[in-house]
């Protein structure tokens, strides 16, 4: 029994680390935006495009990994993706061009997709639909730690080296994860030779997933809710460092404080699932998040918001997200078994596409104020709430699969 529990714990930790590669890649270099811009003789807005290209790479790459995971099993595509990520990270570290940085970040994102898609699919493989919402909540704990550690590690590297070292550290960390995957992580689902990789069957598989009403509703509701987080990631370096005058270390501490809201909420979600359904928790959290988002943009428009209230409102906004992500993810994936890999890929792709859109909007409307970030965050939360609210206007008897435990 003890051996089985240790085995499950190792699987969970490994899946958590795989899930954290993407967030770590996003958060670790945020404190270096100003330094990167100065080093590459460009603007912060141009550097922000490297964040947008990362989101685009993740959104498009996950579509590729889904069929590969269903055809060749989970581990082979995962290992290949991690190798691509390591090579791209080293390329980012060696570049001296902002345009090349944007391109390498896109390739780096393609590599990170393997870990993100495989980890979600393997949660479905190892634990099944009845445990998935709680496991996703636990993964949120691992993922949530990355915003606390990543900016701190990034600031430390910046203080003792420079921004190039950030990408070298990412390469070394991912190499360690790659070794753990190769030698210790068991295969959760073997190859399926009957799974075709021709464009038409792949398209049909994705369409079968996409047209599922439960998947469609919760994938988009969760995707737009998550994109509010990415809008914050895109806009916060400029707002916290340039507008409010924080240094890199102080920014890392504020980032950690705000990230703690996401961690705490995701763990409270595990206990709420013992009493309420995933559907009810997600809907309530989205209502709260929308109200907080509208309050944030209102304060920013009238100009009556200092650092304290900015941090407090974002803290509450992202705390709501901790209740949204695990439940919408579990509800979106629960109808699928044979197409779990494709469903996981499409779910992640839609989420990151929304993230790419929101971070791009923050960069596009950048005007030296807090308004673009706040407006995009509020818009994302409100749109997510409207999508989920519309799903409740369905005929009787067409309720989604519940994940109440």
Automatic annotation (TrEMBL):
GO terms for biological process: xenobiotic detoxification by transmembrane export across the plasma membrane. Residues 11-393 form the Major facilitator superfamily (MFS) profile domain. Pfam families: MFS_1. Keywords: Cell membrane, Membrane, Transmembrane, Transmembrane helix, Transport. It is found in: Cell membrane. Coiled coil: none annotated. GO terms for molecular function: sodium:proton antiporter activity; xenobiotic transmembrane transporter activity. GO terms for cellular component: plasma membrane. It is a multi-pass membrane protein. Gene3D superfamilies: Multidrug resistance protein D (1.20.1720.10). The chain crosses the membrane at residues 9-26, 46-65, 77-96, 102-123, 135-157, 163-185, 215-233, 253-273, 285-305, 371-392. InterPro entries: Efflux_drug-R_Bcr/CmlA, MFS, MFS_dom, MFS_trans_sf. Belongs to the major facilitator superfamily. Bcr/CmlA family. NCBIfam families: efflux_Bcr_CflA. This is Bcr/CflA family drug resistance efflux transporter. The lineage of its organism: Bacteria, Pseudomonadati, Bacteroidota, Sphingobacteriia, Sphingobacteriales.
